[in-house]
């Protein structure tokens, strides 16, 4: 989750400013951390298959890769890229809950698409269609069929919907159509969120 949050910042080019040097350092540390996390021979290799939580963790790693294509995708070496693909693919053994978790599977698949790997259109389609059905109005989605206002709209549902559609919208007319609705919903939710956190 930390890496998904930092990704837009580290995607900016390093420069000679103090912040630019810091950004370059954290981009390098992020790539090194990813390399260790997906290397089965590393003592830091992460669990991608046991229990259910690894799907969540893999989705945030995938989201970081989508948000920082230069820093966290094209700058990875070939071995690490291959291992990232294998790690993300291995999460398919985990069945997501009938909630915002559907977007975790979809985000993993979108990252696989960006990494040039085979990806599962059905997992993406299911997540997108369900969230469209769960839209409650005024920029807010249900976290599942029922209205449930919590922070999942802000750091899972809205951003993952936007980024999955950014990757996949041109694959199906229905997804392209959905993208035209998701964008203004996210803008409305951003206005609500700004007011929720402003005080």
Give the helices and strands, then pairings.
Elements: H1 2-11, H2 18-37, H3 53-67, H4 69-74, H5 78-90, H6 101-114, H7 121-133, E1 135-137, E2 140-141, H8 152-168, H9 173-197
Describe this entry's structure for a reader:
There is one protein chain. The protein is an all-alpha fold and 199 residues long. Helices cover 67% and strands 3% of the residues. The protein has 9 helices and 2 strands. The chain has helices at residues 2-11, 18-37, 53-67, 69-74, 78-90, 101-114, 121-133, 152-168, 173-197; strands spanning 135-137, 140-141. A two-stranded antiparallel sheet has the order 1-2. β1 (135-137) and β2 (140-141) form a beta hairpin.
Give the strand line-up of the largest sheet. Answer: 1-2
Category by helix and strand content: mainly alpha
Question: What would the principal axes of the Cα set say about the shape?
Answer: globular
Radius of gyration: 17 Å
By DSSP, the count of extended strands is 2
The end-to-end distance, rounded to whole angstroms, is: 25 Å
Mean pLDDT: 95
Q: List SSEs in N-to-C order.
A: HHHHHHHEEHH
- Outline the biggest β-sheet: 2 strands, antiparallel
Low-confidence stretches are none
Beta content comes to under 5%
């Amino acid at each position: 989750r930390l890496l998904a949050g930092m990704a837009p910042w580290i995607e900016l080019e390093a420069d000679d400013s103090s912040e630019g040097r810091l950004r370059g350092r954290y981009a390098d540390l992020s790539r090194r951390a990813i390399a260790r996390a997906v290397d089965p021979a590393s003592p830091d290799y992460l669990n991608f298959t046991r229990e259910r939580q690894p799907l969540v963790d893999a989705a945030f790693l995938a989201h970081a890769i989508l948000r920082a294509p230069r820093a966290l995708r094209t700058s990875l070496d070939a071995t690490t890229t291959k291992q990232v693909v294998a790690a993300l693919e291995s999460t398919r053994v985990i069945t997501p809950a009938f909630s915002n978790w559907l977007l975790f599977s979809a985000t993993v698949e979108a990252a696989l698409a960006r990494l040039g790997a085979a990806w599962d259109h059905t997992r993406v389609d299911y997540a997108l269609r369900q969230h469209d059905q769960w839209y409650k109005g005024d920029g807010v989605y249900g976290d599942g069929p029922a209205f449930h206002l919590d922070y999942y709209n802000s750091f899972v549902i809205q951003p993952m919907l936007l980024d999955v559609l950014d990757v996949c919208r041109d694959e199906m007319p229905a997804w392209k159509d959905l993208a035209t609705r998701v964008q203004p919903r996210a803008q409305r939710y951003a206005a609500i969120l700004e007011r929720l956190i402003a005080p």
